[in-house]
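Changelog-adjacent note: as of this version, every example in the card shows the full chain rather than a window. The one below runs 89 residues end to end.
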Amino acid sequence: MTQKVFIALQDNDSARYLVEAILEDNPHAEIQHEPAMIRIEAEKKLVINRTTMEEKLGREWDVQEMLIDVISIGGGVEEDDDHFILQWK
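Full-length structure tokens:
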């Protein structure tokens, strides 16, 4: 049985940068575009790195900022100032 983690985001301008960063840091991830929503899923683990987002945005970025665009998540959350990680252990 597979254990996929996922994050579902609103399909808006700020979330598009987040999607780019997630796909760059997680080349194994799969993306699904739904009406008004973008869902990204991967086997066992997804990592969102602060440094990648800052490169995409061209400014400092706090990991907590992404929560504005999050609709739903699936997986255990591990979070610090530099990463937001979804994974099954």
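Structural remarks: Residues 4-87 form a domain with the Phenol Hydroxylase P2 Protein fold (CATH 3.90.56.10).
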